[in-house]
Amino acid sequence: MATRKRAGAPFEIVLGSKLDVVALGKWLRDLRETVGTTQFALAEKLESPYQNLSRLETGRGKREPMLSTMSRYLRALDWELVLTARPRKAKGGAGEGGE
Is the whole model's pTM more than 0.85, yes or no? Predict the structure, then answer.
């Protein structure tokens, strides 16, 4: 999970088999705060009610956020959403890629 980082440093979150919307929301909030903007200012930039951002950042939305929503949120912070796939680590700790 991402914590406070300097602006410009990559933020990373690894999604499990079920999306943890609370962890994702915290990750988005941490990034927004690192950029140095408020929910209200970001909502104005997105032309969206700040309550929508609050639900997104707390994981209390009615459904999981869509990639397009996350991308729009990040672009408004002058960040971009980059998807990367990689092999899962073996359960026994044998290393990456199951070896």
Answer: no
